[in-house]
Amino acid sequence: GENVEQHPSTLSVQEGDSAVIKCTYSDSASNYFPWYKQELGKGPQLIIDIRSNVGEKKDQRIAVTLNKTAKHFSLHITETQPEDSAVYFCAASTGDSGGGADGLTFGKGTHLIIQP
Amino acid sequence: ETGVTQSPTHLIKTRGQQVTLRCSSQSGHNTVSWYQQALGQGPQFIFQYYREEENGRGNFPPRFSGLQFPNYSSELNVNALELDDSALYLCASSYGTRDNEQFFGPGTRLTVL
Q: Considering only CA atoms, which of B81, B78, B102, B82 is closest in space to residue B92?
């Protein structure tokens, strides 16, 4: 099955600086890569996603890049703010090609700390 | 906030008991997926329900079972609870079964003593 590795496990950056979180996946059939933000006591919140036919996607201060050949994808947050402090998860999915869903396979998470 | 709701918020059970967790999907969504999130870990896929049928299952034993109702709400049932079942249980709703966005509820925190 799919395996997703996520690094680093903890990332501390100064407010206003950029943060980058990296993930690798093992299954070349994976075609959907979402990123979730989870705050304490809450469920994961989808912040951005990318599909395998796209190399990069941007939404205001957040961007995601995908390298299918190397099987890795990254989350970039620019101009970080205190409210960006949370745990971030990457995930990968092969979707449902007719044999049933495999669900999202998540990385172990990155605790992002924004220092004021 | 998503339109996905879960109940109860917290639950304490003892080993060997059975538990039922509930999820109401976001309006317009017909698919519900359930995940288990152990402390400090990423969520793990339990199973998915689409149009009241199980449509995929992760590496969880048969004592984890589910239901989906005509209004697309869903239940997760766990029999013969074990200590390792203590976790945050999350449901996510989406439209269809292919790689569409999944929106998570706040979760149910289950503690097994």
A: B102
Mean pLDDT, to the nearest integer, of A14-32?
Answer: 96
- Over range A12-36, report the average pLDDT: 96
Q: B5-40: per-residue pLDDT in tens?
A: 999 999 999 999 999 999 999 888 899 999 999 999
List the structure tokens of B15.
């080993």
3-class DSSP assignment, residue B84: helix
Task: Encode burial over A60-88: b for 16+ CB neighbours within 10 A, e otherwise.
Answer: eebbbbbeeeebbbbbbbeebeeebbbbb
Place of tokens 């709701």: B5
Strands (E), chain A: 4-7, 10-14, 19-25, 32-38, 45-51, 56-59, 62-67, 72-77, 86-92, 105-106, 110-115
Cβ-based contacts of A105 with chain B (< 8 Å): 45
Residue in B102, B108, B109 to test binding to A, most A beta-carbons within 10 Å: B102
Q: Which residue of B has its CA nearest to A40?
A: B106
CA distance to A104, B3, B70, B94, B111, per residue, from B101 (Å)? 10, 13, 21, 6, 29
Cα separations in angstroms, B23 against A96, B9, B31, B77, B102: 22, 11, 11, 12, 14
CA dist., res. A70 & res. A40, Å (int): 33
